[in-house]
């Protein structure tokens, strides 16, 4: 992976201490700002000799020439060929490593058309953890159907969702169910829709990560369209997809479920309340699509998991909605004492506060300069 970087940057990164290199998660290059790495859930700046420091002013500072050379390398010296990826704000390089980009967005009719003046890079290191699935897969099994339940893996960024879903795909495709009652089940056909090229890290269509012998990968394809393509052409028994969240993703998952295919997906959220606060995911939950939710948390280099059934998820969200209905701001009149009941509901309500006129706020007239297509 270090071959990705220009020589002067590579020499600095090669000197990073072994303990940090072995758990390296992110490399952040920002033009004219200190070089930073993330490792084992920790962050540090990097000096020119590779040693680590918490002081930014003491660190190696990449310049414009470093950023320009890095951009040339990750786009294979053809920025125009990578236009679509630049528009999405990241480029996935060989090995499944994703390079996030920050710069100036160029707009076309209100939508991001391109990125220019790119001066920030976040290289996220992709790693395979063989055996990660053994801890989680037994809790996702549907013993009656001899396969998995529809499952959604949930966590904030950088908690191990993609690493887990990759190893789950490998285990299922290999028939490694990690449960004594499933020894004679055999393997299943797995279809991976890999929009960001991170799950399989395909090179010219061939996965470079081990996803098992019965896995087909649709690389660099939008999730919703890819799910439908898999259903039409590859007859998968299980579809694996990363980072769902849009309405079209939810609709495609509905199609897959009603076609008799099991779905294994991931999504960004910290808790159930966050998850169900996202409209598309809330709709999936309300229709009972997912039989299990797997929540991941990091404790240093260790990843912990918690499996929540669909029934328990519904109970938790119902209690949360009741607390929201009954909630009263701490500074509202009568907040510290007994609260009146909402008529006919049996629930405590908020004190009635009379409306009052708001003061008029006047601002001095300001001339706005003409806009441009750059934002």
From TrEMBL:
Coiled coil: none annotated. GO terms for molecular function: ATP binding. It comes from the Bacteria. Residues 314-358 are annotated as: Disordered. Keywords: ATP-binding, Nucleotide-binding. Residues 147-290 form the AAA+ ATPase domain. Pfam families: Spore_III_AA. Transmembrane segments: none annotated. Signal peptide: none annotated. Gene3D superfamilies: P-loop containing nucleotide triphosphate hydrolases. InterPro entries: AAA+_ATPase (IPR003593), P-loop_NTPase (IPR027417), Spore_III_AA (IPR014217), Spore_III_AA_AAA+_ATPase (IPR045735). This is Stage III sporulation protein AA. It comes from Cohnella terricola.
């Amino acid at each position: 992976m270090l071959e990705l970087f220009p020589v002067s940057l590579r020499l600095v990164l090669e000197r990073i201490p072994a303990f940090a290199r072995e758990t390296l998660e992110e490399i952040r290059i920002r033009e004219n700002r200190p070089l930073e790495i993330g490792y084992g859930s920790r962050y540090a700046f990097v000096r020119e000799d590779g040693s680590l420091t918490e002081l930014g002013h003491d660190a190696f500072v990449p310049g414009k020439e470093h950023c320009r050379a890095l951009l040339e390398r990750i786009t294979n010296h053809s920025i125009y060929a990578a236009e679509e990826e630049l528009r999405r704000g990241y480029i996935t390089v060989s090995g499944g490593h994703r390079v996030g980009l920050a710069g100036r967005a160029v707009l076309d009719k209100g939508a991001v058309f391109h990125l220019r003046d790119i001066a920030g890079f976040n290289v996220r290191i992709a790693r395979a953890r063989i055996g990660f699935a053994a801890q989680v897969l037994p809790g996702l099994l549907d013993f009656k159907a001899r396969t998995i339940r529809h499952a959604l893996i949930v966590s904030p960024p950088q908690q191990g969702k993609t690493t887990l879903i990759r190893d789950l795909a490998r285990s299922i495709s290999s028939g490694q169910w990690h449960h004594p009652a499933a020894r004679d089940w055999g393997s299943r056909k797995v279809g991976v829709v890999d929009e960001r090229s991170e799950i399989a890290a395909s090179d010219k269509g061939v996965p470079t990560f081990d996803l098992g012998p019965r896995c087909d990968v649709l690389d660099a394809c939008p999730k919703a369209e890819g799910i439908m393509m898999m259903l039409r052409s590859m007859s998968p028994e299980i579809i694996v997809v990363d980072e769902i969240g849009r309405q079209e993703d939810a609709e495609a998952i509905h199609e897959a479920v009603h076609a008799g295919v099991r779905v294994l997906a991931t999504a960004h959220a910290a808790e159930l309340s966050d998850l169900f606060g996202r409209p598309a995911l809330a709709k999936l939950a309300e229709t009972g699509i997912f039989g299990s939710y797997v929540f991941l948390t990091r404790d240093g280099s260790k990843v912990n998991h918690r499996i929540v059934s669909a029934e328990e998820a519904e109970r938790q969200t119902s209690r949360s909605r009741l607390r929201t209905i009954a909630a009263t701001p701490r500074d509202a009149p009568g907040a510290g004492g007994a609260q009146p009941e909402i008529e006919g509901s049996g629930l405590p309500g908020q004190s009635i506060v009379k409306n009052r006129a708001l003061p008029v706020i006047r601002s001095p007239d300001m001339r706005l300069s003409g806009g441009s297509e750059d934002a």
